[in-house]
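job 3f2a | input accepted
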Amino acid sequence: EIYRIKLPGPPTEIGEGKPENQNHAIIFTRGEALQTIDINQDNYYEEAFKMRNVLEEFQKGHSGQQKTILGIKEHIFTQSISSLGWFMLNQETSFVTIGQRILANSLRVRFHYGHSDIFDRIFHITRGGISKASKVINLSEDIYAGFNSTLRQGFITHHEYIQVGKGRDVGMNQISLFEAKVANGNGEQTLSRDVYRLGQQFDFYRMLSFYFTTVGFYFSSMITVLIVYVFLYGRLYMVLSGVDREILKNPNIHQDKVLEEVLATQSVVQLGLLLMLPMVMEIGLEKGFRTALADFIIMQLQLASVFFTFQLGTKAHYYARTLLHGGAKYRPIDCGFVVFHAKFADNYTMYSRSHFVKGLEILILLIVYEVYGKSYHNSHLYLFITISMLFLAASWLFVPFLFNPSAFAWQKAVDDWTDWKRWMGNHGGIGISCDKSWESWLGEENEHLKHSNIRGKILKIILAFRFFMYQYGIVYHMDITHHRKDLLVFGFSWAVLIIILIVLKMVSMGRQRFGSNFSLKFHILKALLFLDFLSVITVLFVIYGLTISDFFAAIIAFMPSGWAIILIAQVCNACLKGAKQWDSVKELSKAYEYVMGFIIFLPMAILSWFPLVSKFQTRWLFNQAFSRGLQISMILAGKKDIYQSG
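job 3f2a | predicted structure (646 res):
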């Protein structure tokens, strides 16, 4: 026994596992250099002969500064597993090959990113280790080693004459978990003192380089998504308030086409083509521009733009939530080769709040914009705006299923729907994991609100008030109001909404009281409520002039208001539990979850009726090796079922 280290507490309570193990193990190492290797990395025999050359780099100073971290190029070997693996290869090429070369050489803002970097052991063992391990704030523990080294006058370089192998994520959920973890980590970095100190000590140009290559990228992603909402809600206000109609009456607006053409041209740039330009240039330099152009076209045909648009939503959601509420936590990622079908319930738990809710919100905004807006309908601007927003909404709603193996197989669809209904119906409780019950998942999904401060909770409530805009604007456009514009109309709409909520509460109480033992009484209660509903609707149609369009307009107006009530109630969770009203909120939330799940699942079920769609997805979106793996998995599953039945 050489050393015995007494820890100040249980290892799981001190900090995150990986950085704690690194900093603990560094004292047992020998020599002057230390290389960090991730679990998903590999090495090659011929590259080992270059290690002596790399270590000689420590002897070369740079302007009187000691080299403290030597960066090494990575070679991705998982690009042939799936089309997603190929996308991640090209993304890694843009960052590792192009990005880190520039970050280290001219910009001097390269840090440690969890790759196979070589550390000056003597330098780092006397300055806090090779990573920071505090929970939450140091979620992205690796980059803090680079921060620490730079703050203490270290010098970080990058070398491309040596490389190590690396396996990137190849499954949709794997990639999303990784992106969520990195986005959470960047949110915590934004709040950390390390970033503040670096920003204070850098000169202006180096500070800008540091910003745009670290937290600035995620901040820009968040701003991009926020601008979409600001634009759509601004258009919604113009349409529902009548400003849109006044613009049409102005003849000067129809004659001014310059701004319209400029915005239409800008929409082409916003498709993200410029973001792919560095990747095309790098592949062109390494393999030739014909190969680069061919790869670019194939990526577009394999829906790379749709995939990266989806990941934009992942980055923006988790980064914004971390800034607003904090409480980032480590998300374990399966580093194996994921070649299996993810259930609908699993996809729903992972993407419900980050993508599905936002996608449906944009879809409702576009519907209202289409129904009540009249300006620019015949212009290029309207076409580009509508197509780009529909593209964004469709990407956020259906990408997890598009890149999910066998998502459009009919039997898988039936099994997924059955499993999802079971998941929605199971009761939560102590020891029930979130993948087994919707109630347990809801508690875990709102866990960050328990640790949020007053400012974050108030801001979330303020943001939830945007959903009341639908009700406030649409009710004045209904035929039953007879063009009245006073507040009494809005107050009457709230009375209708409250009555609807009371009826839903009565149904919920009836199900709890009579559902199991007195099913006849419960059916009688539902029949009476249904007859009352028909009576009220008949009176409104005959006497007050309610129309069919008013009925659908009321649905669009009241559904967002109910969702706003749910969001506000989740913030006031503790108060509602004290008043014993939290169960009512859960019942209302479950009803919304059923509606959202049905809307999202319906297109999948329709496409699953056609066997050609499933074959096309497997053969086109996934390469031959992935398809072969799917077939082998199906065969093995079939044999397993036979053995179990026997």
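job 3f2a | The chain is about 70% helix and 5% strand.
job 3f2a | closed
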